[in-house]
Design a protein that fits this description.
Two copies of one chain form a homodimer.
Chain A lengths: L2 H14 L14 E6 L6 H5 L6 E6 L6 H14 L3 E7 L9 H12 L13 H14 L8 E7 L6 E4 L1
Parallel strand pairs in A: 1-2, 1-3, 3-4
Antiparallel strand pairs in A: 4-5
Chain lengths: ~160, ~160
């Protein structure tokens, strides 16, 4: 049995006990979170959020690209969120690669070199600050009074604010 | 107190009981999930996944753009995942807007028209199938034997496979 099949069995159990059919579409806490895809970073757990509470956007690194701006724009313009939390984390895979090395690797493996940036960064705090700037400076994000950035420590479970 | 401040208080409690300092970086179940950012869709809950089990990538709609290909490429090439689950859901906000209407709205609000596509789609199953194709056809995703797509029913908690 594949892992996917196992997860589908888990879902059958989840659905059997499901009792949240009446949650509205707009996030109850009016918050959107952008975080790394890392398996150790579970934003709802870390922040004590339940189903229906917040939009959660995730990618490799928790960096900001056009796709995060698109998602945040939909979150604020269409679904009423007003605060944004940006979460990078210690021991991130993107601290361990460089853009050139990763692209070289892909080119050697596939014969094609990606046109996108890998997202690799050298310093966590700098990357969080860059992400805050990208969000605040985007013309498409209207609510920027509370755009705060954090480093999640995978060693302690703690969020450390980057100011 | 802002909602963000409340969530930081929740995190202090989480960190106080934290006992997962030793999780390795590569996802234990070797799975990456791409799902919508919707507040009602909590992939770890729906699939019975714990911290450390899977990469979770999320955006508005759960659609595939260059940023999801980037994240999946890093997931497979750098961190050993081999299976992919793509999750859209019923009652999705992207079924309720059109690309032109959303861009008109942003242009009226900001004076600028985004260059990116909004991600809006008209049919859930078609969008899931498009996402599967985009992943399978990407030269940068080496493991494509198990790329499966689902509609999550927010009314029942059940995942329905799209074939």
């Amino acid at each position: 049995m594949s892992v996917t099949d196992e997860l589908l069995r888990n879902n059958e159990k989840y659905a059997a006990g499901f009792d949240q059919a009446d949650l509205p579409t707009p996030p109850r806490r009016k918050v959107a979170i952008v975080a790394c895809m890392d398996a150790r970073v579970v934003p709802t757990e870390i922040l004590g959020l339940g189903a229906g509470d917040a939009h959660v956007i995730r990618n490799a690194g928790g960096v900001i690209t056009d796709d995060e701006i698109r998602s945040l724009a939909i979150s604020q313009h269409e679904l009423g969120t007003e605060e944004i939390l940006l979460i990078h984390h210690t021991d991130c895979g993107l601290l361990k690669i460089t853009d050139d090395e990763f692209k070289d690797k892909l080119e050697q493996a596939t014969g094609r070199r990606p046109e996108w940036h890998s997202g690799a960064f050298r310093d966590l705090e700098t990357s969080v600050r860059d992400s805050i700037s990208q969000v605040v400076e985007s013309p498409f994000i209207p609510h920027t009074d509370s755009v705060r950035g954090f480093v999640y420590e995978v060693e302690t479970g703690r969020l450390r604010e980057v100011v």
